[in-house]
Design brief:
Distance between the termini: 67 Å
Strand order of the largest sheet: 2-3-1-4
Largest sheet: 4 strands, antiparallel
Radius of gyration: 28 Å
Strand content: 15-25%
Mean pLDDT: 77
Structural class: alpha+beta
Number of strands: 4
Helix content: 55-70%
Oligomer: single chain
Shape: rod-shaped
Order of helices and strands: HHHHHHEHEEHE
Number of helices: 8
Low-confidence stretches: none
């Protein structure tokens, strides 16, 4: 292969896409990314979901599909695209590593859809979605609560008796006794009922009872 043939091989595309194929690739990337976002919403354990994260996933997948169609079967253009994309730096911090994995999933779906591997994109996303849902159910965090009791002169034994009466497993997380002021923090292994709140509040010496509930307490 001489220099002319090598240059022609590097710069000429082997084949292009029709308008129908391009639209179908983008549609597949879009639909699969919607499925990815539904899995994300169904399995995430955070209370505050990012409202724009679904848009981020869709844009990531669709733009990746466009890039793959641009550089398809053109080695020189693909090398130039890699060099151009390497200068991009993302400054926004992702707090949850799980969000990063969903972005990679969207990129993979865009790669497969952009190259016309629709079956691979659909089957792999379905299998990953099944795994994510199953793993999320197996590792679901138990609902726990923190009960903060403040007052002066109350007996911890009375609070323990109220917890045992409600059949709530507990553990003392913190205790503070500053003269006439006393504070105890209990970790409850399930949601506290209104009956527990009333019974503890009625104990002698208890000034206030606060309960903080949540899966990530």
């Amino acid at each position: 292969m001489n220099k002319t043939e090598l240059f022609s091989y590097l710069t000429n595309s082997v084949g292009g896409y029709t308008v129908g194929e391009m639209l179908l690739n983008l549609a597949v990337a879009f639909v699969i990314t919607l499925f990815i976002y539904l899995i994300y919403v169904a399995t995430t354990k955070r209370v505050n979901l990012y409202s724009s994260f679904g848009l981020v996933l869709v844009l990531t997948s669709v733009v990746t599909a466009v890039i793959m169609m641009v550089i398809h079967s053109n080695l020189a253009l693909s090398l130039g695209m890699v060099g151009a994309l390497s200068i991009i730096r993302f400054r926004s911090a992702i707090k949850d590593p799980v969000d990063t994995s969903y972005i990679f999933w969207a990129v993979a779906a865009g790669l497969a859809a952009g190259t016309g591997n629709w079956l691979l994109a659909a089957v792999s996303s379905a299998l990953i979605g099944i795994f994510v849902v199953a793993f999320s159910r197996l590792t679901r965090t138990k609902t726990r609560s923190l009960m903060v009791v403040r007052g002066s002169g109350f007996l911890p034994e009375s609070i323990a008796a109220a917890l045992e009466e409600q059949k709530i497993p507990y553990k003392v997380k913190s205790r503070s006794d500053e003269g006439s002021s006393r504070e105890y923090i209990y970790e409850l292994n399930r949601e506290a009922s209104d009956g527990l709140l009333s019974s503890v509040k009625a104990l002698e010496g208890v000034a206030s009872v606060n309960i903080v509930s949540g899966a990530d307490v």
